[in-house]
Amino acid sequence: MIDRDTVLHVARLARLELTDGEVERMVGELGGVLEHIETIAQLDLDGVPPTTHVVEVANALREDEPRASLSRQQALAGAPAVADEGFAVPSPQA
Fold this sequence. Notes:
Number of strands: 2
Distance between the termini: 33 Å
CATH architecture of the domain at 4-41: Orthogonal Bundle
């Protein structure tokens, strides 16, 4: 079972600010997720091939082949701000 201190530790690592109510809710929700993982870990999955989808999907992925892309001017045309021939973004807060 996950406890309050672990939730607070993970939230700090993820730089999340949680209210007391959110912390308590996460204790229950993350605990439930871990219980499901423990259940799955007990299953005998030898011989079960890895999958990308839970149901058969045809033609879901295209071949990864090089092709023409947008010019810099086209890509920046819709940008709200441009700087140094690229997208201008705010500096990260420390």
